[in-house]
Amino acid sequence: LGIAEVYVEATQGGWYVRGGMARIAGALEAVARDLGVTFQFNTVAEGYRSGVVTALGGETFRADFVVCNGDVLNARRSVFASYTTMAEERELLAPEMSCSGLIFLLGVDKRYDQLSQHNVFFSDEYALEFDDIFVKGELPLQPTIYVSISSRRDPEDAPAGSENYFVLVNAPPRRHDYPLNTARLERYQRAVIKRLEQMGLDGLREHVAYSRSEEHTSELQSRLHL
User: What's the rounded Cα separation, in Å, for the pair 106 and 158?
Assistant: First the structure.
């Protein structure tokens, strides 16, 4: 976590936006529209050349400023590739990468009363977890697991009698020689669910009615996360 994130959590605790984080973006959009800003959604930027953003379909938009809310390295390799020299890419790749994360979205047809909206299940071997991630470059055998259940505050986020689990675990930086293919993700999801069962969520596997796996890649350099 960045210093600002740690400070906010330590001094003000964890906060939840009713309706989810997208409500913040919606509120900012509403304020911007009131100030005369126009938006064009569902438009994919293909590149940036000579002050022009080229969008999918061939449209071009002149821009005085371009703000990219994404990973620096990925942006330099895609949208801003024409402005990135080999020397700049080597400089970006030089520092040690920060960790990534794996996200498992679970629909659970049971309520575990011992859980709250935000839950953290710490590893019994915390040092070994980060040794797996940063030294071995592998998914940790015993990860620290964060489980968020927004339906505890917004019941409409899940069907009656069920709950939605956002499960996040730490993972090593993306490596081309260690692909997180579907089979590997499914195996690791089963391992994470088994770990949650060991931590008190008895029979969780039998109550997972829906699941989806995603990789939350964080390839920002570690120096940006100090």
Answer: 11
